Amino acid sequence: MDYKYINNMLSEMDKDLSSKGMTRRDAMKLAGISGASFMMGGSNLEAMEKDQLPLKKSGVDAKIVIVGGGLAGMSTAARLTLNLKNPDITVIEPNKLSVSYQPGQTLVAAGIWDIEDIKYNRDDFVPEGTKIIEDKVIDFDPNNNQVTTAKGQVIDYDYLIVATGLQLDFERLEGLEHAGRAYSTGDNSKLHKAIGEDTGICSIYTAEGATKTWEQMQKYIEKAKNAKDGKKVQFLFTHPSTPIKCGGAPKKIMYLTNARLKEAGARDNAELTFYPNGGAMFGVPEYHDAIYEQFKREGFKWHYRTNLIGVEKENKIAIFDSKWQEKGPFDPIMKDFEVVSKHEKIRVPYDFLHITPDAVAPREVAESEIGDGGFVPVNKETLQHVKFMNVFAIGDIAQVPMGKTGGSVRKQYKVLVDNLIAKMEGKKLPSKYAGYTVCPLITDIGTVMLAEFDWSVKPTPSFPLDPLVERWVFWLMKVYALKPMTMYGMLSGKA
Where is the FAD/NAD(P)-binding domain (predicted)? Predict the structure, then answer.
């Protein structure tokens, strides 16, 4: 564990706390999390490492291949090495920055962090004894227990873990057909060339895009500062029709743009509008209600059931498919009126347009028997493939309800490792993932509503505080604590 980094983080947090007249221990007591040792520093961090060491390692042998070396894949590899006496693990991952801290992209986009604050080298987090193949899998052959890479390597396995993550499908948008598909990290120059430099279009969903979002945001905040004659600068934010990585992120960047506008004294000259494909602010009713009240408080506008389908960059027009339902003819058999679905294409002018792209499975996954046309179908509790019993999936690529956040992976990778080792030993799979998902919903610079929930579709707070209230102490967790817990906790297989 990198104690130098964590000590620096704790020092910065203490400065923030002292400005509020509090100590770190006071803040933890306020949150009811005095036992959260990763925020308490020093010897407690060492104790956390010792407490997480496994009591007994399995002696079972098998060749395990993990496709994808991001947070999900590398954390799983690390935990397997802690729980197997003779681990034989190969991770196939082409991107040298695959473990970069994706949740920090929102903070980069608001000028709170720099891009260097979220960049991490894959090879610094490879568990001892784990083999890295710097290549990309282009074909899955689960019937013969093989994968094939772009460089032509055919790799056999006894057990396969799919942790590829998802792709960002910008190319489906009219006007961005040449953008292609992107990953959060890596070379996305094709995407940014297609977007252009002076179009007002941005997206926090790539690391480079987060930096460009901050550049664009500052430009249009300055325009709002200088706006005259009551003309408002139009800031548009979208949420697509697919499940996405961190469902709260499209709203986070909207809240942060709002905060920066207020900070600049330009909020009255700006109009912020949210265009979600769905019919609610959030899938959990209690959080929907809280966000709805926040939107009203901040003077945001919104249009439900409105999905972005294209852009006219030259004219700065966003094109949406707007959907609604109308009462149709009376059905004498059902003794009720039919409901008729309607939709129309609408054109909306913008100055600043933040795009949350469709999230899709990589083609090599979707077009194989592993993916069966999309994300990898698994038992939502055990994470075992529904057809191939020696295949598991984790993270964004796993076809489970909800569960596309780093906090979800923190629960999933422990379940997967327990179940994989049990499978290797010929035992019944013992662990179940309950759908835990967490979204630190940034509502301002300095406040966060910590949305935690599972498949019960109810708030499941970890702390003895009202989960519907925005709190400064959760901002401290988001800005100071979650990254070290991820980078030096999860990626060591211990958090």
Answer: 63-182
64 forms beta bridges with 89, 159
**Same domain for 319 and 195?**
yes
pTM of the model: 0.90
250 and 374 part of one domain: no
Alpha-helical runs (H) found in 200-311: 207-225, 249-263, 285-298
* Positions of the chain with pLDDT lower than 50, given as ranges: 1-3, 32-51, 54
**Strand locations in 40-176, DSSP E?**
63-67, 88-92, 131-133, 137-141, 146-149, 154-156, 159-162, 167-169
Q: Give the residue numbers spanning the domain of 7.
A: 1-44+442-479
- pLDDT, residue 476, reads 86
HEC-encoded secondary structure of 196-221: CCCCCEECCCCHHHHHHHHHHHHHHH
- The SS3 call for residue 50 is helix
Q: What pLDDT, on the 0 to 100 scale, is given for residue 34?
A: 38
Helix axes 249-263, 207-225, angle to 10 degrees: 40
Query: Which stretches of 264-342 are DSSP H helices?
Result: 285-298
Report the alpha-carbon distance of residue 121 to residue 74 in Å, rounded. 12
Amino acid at 443: T
Q: Could you tell me if 141 and 242 lie in one domain?
A: no
Neighbours of 271 (CB within 10 A): 17
Beta bridge partners of 58: 84
Identify any residues that bridge with 66 across adjacent strands, giving them in sequence order. 91, 161
> How does DSSP assign 100-116, residue by residue?
--GGGHHHHHTTSS-GG
Q: Are 331 and 128 in contact (CB under 8 A)?
A: no
- Residue whose entry in the numeric block shows the structure tokens 């949305």: 451
Under a CB-based contact definition with an 8 Å cutoff, are residues 306 and 323 in contact?
Answer: yes
Residue 384 backbone phi and psi in degrees, to 5: -90, 140
Helix (H, G, I), strand (E, B) or coil at 16: helix
Which of 382, 407, 435 is where one domain is finished? 435
